[in-house]
Amino acid sequence: MNIRDKENELFKRWRFHAGADANTFFVQDGTLDPEAYINSKVKIGSVLKETPFDSTAHQGYVFGPAFVDSLEKNGSSEFLKKKGTLSILAKRIAVILNTLHPSESHDPVDSLKQTAYLNLKKYRGTKTSSQKDLENVAIRDKEFLKEQIEEILNPDILLCGKTRHYLGFIYGRDIHFIAEDPTKKVKLFHLLQDGKPTRLIIEMYHPSHRSSEEEQLKKLREVLVSYKNSGDFLF
Questions:
Q1: Rounded to the nearest 10 degrees, what angle do helices 131-140 and 164-171 cross at?
Q2: Residue range 77-106, pLDDT digits in tens
Q3: Which listed site, 16, 27, 48, 70, has its alpha carbon 20 to 30 Å from 124?
Q4: For the CA atoms of the chain, what is the radius of gyration?
């Protein structure tokens, strides 16, 4: 099975587990461009909270061919001007790739196409779910979330936007703190397997947080440079 078929098969079982019928909004997230993702030097999976279930549910949350089509229609420059979740993630991902592989130039939009993203809460979303509700989702859907991360996406980096906390319900004590910038706006962790680090987890403010994105990108770059020069570096 290719990566898209694996995603669809997982979502089919997930729907049944959740008791979500065909009319229930269910986020079909995962890889934006499966081939680009598989061939990327560093696989990045962005971890988000949820997609609101309302009249705007599909706006800003397009996947696969739909995302590529929207870029071709509106242009990458217009896309990056928007302050939506995906445009902000594109800039963050480009900083990560350009810092880890400075010999290559990574365009934000192309960088985003090479990555994947997953919402913790894939169904019955609201404008803002409580932390407890999202914790319950992480616990209830733990095995499905873990399957999506481990067996399908298998990312080298998990990029979190105030979602690292929820990964704790999936991985327990296997998340080890490494470093943070002086202002504590960007934090790095390692995900351990059998006591050995296997993945990097980056925690930042949620993309919709009212803060200076340029400042966050600067802090992200600084803490990654420090990490790259440390003995903890995985790449």
A1: 30
A2: 777 777 777 888 989 999 999 999 888 888
A3: 70
A4: 17
Q: What are 207's two structure tokens?
A: 């993309």
Q: Is 214 exposed, middle or buried (0-12, 13-18, 19+ CB in 10 A)?
A: exposed
- Give the containing element (helix H, strand E) for 65: helix 65-74
Phi, psi of 110 (to 5 degrees): -65, -35
Please name the residue that has the structure tokens 């800003």. 60
Alpha-helical (H) ranges within 75-212 are 76-81, 85-100, 108-113, 131-140, 142-146, 164-171
159 near 91, Cβ under 8 Å?
Answer: no
Categorize the per-residue pLDDT at 231 as very low, low, confident or very high, splitting at 50, 70 and 90.
very high
| Residue 194, both tokens | 């059998």
CA distance 204 to 98: 18
Q: Which residue has the tokens 């993309």?
A: 207
Residue 55's pLDDT is: 56
Question: Which residues contact residue 73 at a Cβ distance below 8 angstroms, ignoring those fewer than 6 apart?
Answer: none
Q: Which of 27, 33, 159 is nearest to 88 (CA)?
A: 159
What percentage of the chain carries pLDDT values higher than 70?
A: 91
| Strand ranges in the chain using DSSP code E only, listed in sequence order | 30-31, 44-50, 116-121, 157-161, 175-180, 187-193, 196-204
Angle (CA) 115 120 122, round 5° = 95
> What CATH code would you report for 3-228?
3.40.470
Which residues contact residue 177 at a Cβ distance below 8 angstroms, ignoring those fewer than 6 apart?
A: 187, 188, 189
CB atoms within 10 A of CB 34: 17
Nearest to 46 by CA among 182, 149, 137: 149
